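Thread: magnesium ion complex, take 2
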Amino acid sequence: MIYFKTQEEIELIRQSCLLVCKALTEVATMIRPGITGTELDQAAEQLIRDHGAKPGFKGYNGFPATLCISKNECVVHGIPADEPFKDGDVVSVDCGVYMNDFYGDAAFTFALGDVDEKVMELLRVTKTSLYKGIEKAVSGKRIGDISFAVQEYCERKHRYGVVRELVGHGIGRNLHEAPEVPNYGKRGSGPKLREGLVIAIEPMVNLGRREVKQSADGWTIITRDHLPSAHYEHTVAVGQNKADILSDHKPIEAAIAANPNVNEVSSKDERAVISGLN
Ligand code: MG
Ligand code: MG
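Output below.
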């Protein structure tokens, strides 16, 4: 069952998403080699609670933390740990917030220090593919148009592995609602998009093969070939002519620009897609 939202409900989801991005901006300011996931998690939780909201992931199916922190070969759902990050790590941080009965969800992958250029390119392509997907989130198109756009760019154009086992999702009063939003699929297939549909689009893309497995902690998803993975996510409302992006990466990116330990992730392709979305 797909729940279509009123404009009022969409505004509440936006507030939750903006708080998620505030928490991710705090992460972007703090993150550096030497800091731990646990420290970032505590800061994010404090910030969310200071705004009268609740972490969306903590306790969800028993997940123990506010942030999912997934480093290098970890794709998603990593548990924040006490091991300090190292120069050269890529760290995906996913955050959810529950406020005023609605969830918000967004994610960003941070590149710390001297990251291999091949991995930087994976990050740029994955982030660009997110906007290629968002470009299709308009009334009259179908979920498969989003899926195809992401897969086409990451897999067919850049030869990366697009994860199959984990997908984007509807979001609202529940963190995960119908429909599923896969990062692979056929153009013109799947549920029809119309105004009121709010979805999280979240490409998870591997440098090597697409296959993943669950690690022994019961949560963390890792690549089978142990090559790095990237993850970027926005929550968007389907629009009549263009998608309304409810989360906001811009403050995160401004914090990265001001943080000498983190590399900016930006490409010509991405800028071209984003300029068409505005
Ligand atoms: Mg997320
Ligand atoms: Mg999500």
